[in-house]
């Protein structure tokens, strides 16, 4: 039980930080490059954007794709939660459980946006068939190694403002860090119980 409380605290802390940062951005920033806040010169910025789909704004290309994506996020979160409990019970290695806890925290953070923000922040796309499950994920962390308007002759991106790295949020950082920790723990599997 003590182990579960420790990981539940980590998950809760990340979800709270993620949601607090998203709500702060929503209430205090103008969307897009006009509202950018430089944190570390021109390299690290806060840029308020909305992601209507999956990671990197990828789309599946059908009307109810967001329902599928959101349902998958919620079901994956429930499964990971169950898996963490099972891992704690069988006394799996701490890095393994920590990695999955970080992934769960990130999944919960972005699921909250998808399930609720369309209704409570009214940020569902205008063409969405409903507001529930169509909330757009708020992103704001922007590492700007290069950005600008692409030449109009360039296919796909021509005339669009683009940036080198995607804009992300704390939930995305948690998922990425969790994957690194899980891979590290898997690398140590000969020495640890996974």
What does this protein look like?
A hairpin with a 3-residue loop joins strand 1 and strand 2 (about 45-50). It contains four helices and five strands. Helices cover about 50% and strands about 15% of the residues. It has about 190 residues and is of the alpha+beta class.
What structural class do helix, strand and pairing data support? alpha+beta
Cα(first) to Cα(last) distance is 19 Å
Q: Oligomeric state of the chains?
A: single chain
Low-confidence stretches: none
Q: Give the overall form.
A: globular
Descriptive terms for the model:
alpha+beta
Topology (elements, then pairings):
Blueprint: H1 2-28, E1 37-40, E2 44-51, H2 65-89, H3 94-120, E3 137-143, E4 147-149, E5 161-163, H4 170-187
Antiparallel strand pairs: 1-2, 2-3, 4-5
Helix pairs in contact: 1-3, 2-3, 3-4
């Amino acid at each position: 039980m003590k182990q579960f409380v420790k990981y539940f605290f980590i998950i809760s802390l990340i979800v709270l930080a993620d949601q607090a940062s998203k709500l702060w951005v929503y209430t205090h920033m103008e969307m897009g490059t006009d509202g950018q806040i430089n944190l570390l010169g021109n390299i690290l910025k806060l840029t308020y954007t909305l992601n209507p789909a999956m990671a990197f704004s990828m789309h599946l290309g059908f009307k109810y794709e967001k329902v599928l994506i959101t349902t998958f996020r919620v079901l994956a979160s429930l499964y990971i939660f169950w898996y963490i409990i099972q891992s704690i019970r069988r006394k799996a290695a701490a890095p393994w459980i920590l990695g999955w806890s970080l992934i769960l925290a990130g999944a919960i953070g972005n699921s909250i946006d998808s399930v609720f923000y369309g209704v409570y922040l009214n940020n569902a796309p205008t063409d969405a068939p409903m507001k529930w499950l169509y909330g757009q994920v708020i992103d704001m962390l922007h590492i700007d190694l290069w950005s600008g308007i692409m030449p109009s002759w360039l296919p796909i991106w021509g005339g669009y403002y683009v940036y080198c790295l995607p804009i992300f949020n704390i939930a995305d950082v948690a998922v990425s860090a969790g994957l690194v920790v899980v891979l590290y723990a898997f690398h140590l599997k000969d020495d640890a119980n996974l």
